[in-house]
Design a protein that fits this description.
Shape: globular
Low-confidence stretches: 10-14
Order of helices and strands: HHEHEHHH
Largest sheet: 2 strands, antiparallel
Radius of gyration: 21 Å
Number of helices: 6
Structural class: mainly alpha
Number of domains: 1
Length: 227
């Protein structure tokens, strides 16, 4: 069931997180704007006669120019970061709520994963192999040579966002349960997507504001205490 950030639900008992009016306005606008943008990107990434099943969609996913795929990936990264922060703020404002069903399946990841360092394991016979130029020869058969990449990873991320908007109540319940843990879902540094040079100063400032409010909200323990 979709949720409406304008509803201002209140739960009995306890004091809820005080959401600034500026943040309320941003969430009210962004929730619907991101939903519309995700639908438009789905149409852009996939033909109108796309097959119904997820596996069939991945198999039939069109190939996009690398530059276009990179721009879409950046937009999705912004949307994912916005949705996580909006869910956190709404949970903090709404207060305690029921736990999600035990068999509920989430497609959208609630946590932000910290960057994982890539540590190469040296080959026993040549510890410096990673410092050398690649051996000359033909490209691998599975490496695209036409400058195009599959849109399947983008479609998967877009489908996860659609799942949030179609099952908003479920994701609020899941985020509320997640916020009960000592380790919170949002990382303290701003998402890299919020710092992109393509954003206008106003957009960047609004995203920074939402990020800061969401960090305060996820540390505000009273709304999440069901005791």
């Amino acid at each position: 069931m979709p949720i409406h950030p304008d509803s201002r639900r209140k739960h009995a008992g306890g004091m809820n997180f005080p959401v600034p009016s500026r943040t309320r306005g941003l969430i009210s606008h962004w929730w619907h704007a991101v939903q519309d943008a995700v639908e438009n990107l789905l149409l852009r990434c996939h033909p109108a006669d796309a097959p119904a099943g997820a596996a069939a969609q991945a198999a039939e996913a069109p190939r996009l120019p690398r530059v276009e795929a990179g721009a879409i990936s950046l937009a999705i990264g912004i949307f994912e970061a916005l949705v996580r922060r909006m869910l956190v703020v709404m949970c903090a404002e709404y207060g305690p709520m029921a736990s999600p069903p035990g068999d509920a399946k989430l497609l959208f990841r609630l946590d932000e994963c910290p960057p994982v360092p890539v540590i190469r394991t040296p080959r026993a016979g040549d510890p410096d192999y990673c410092l050398k130029a690649p051996t000359a020869g033909p490209l691998r058969a599975d490496r695209p040579t036409d400058g195009l990449v599959s849109s399947a990873p983008l479609l998967k991320r877009l489908a996860a966002l659609v799942h949030v908007f179609e099952n908003g109540e479920l994701y609020l319940q899941a985020m509320h349960a997640r916020l009960l843990a000592p380790l919170k879902p949002l990382l303290a540094p701003q998402p890299k997507a919020f710092l992109d040079a393509a954003l206008s100063p106003e957009q960047a400032d609004n995203m920074r504001h939402l990020h800061e409010v969401a960090l305060d909200a996820q540390s505000f323990d009273k709304p999440f205490d069901t005791s």
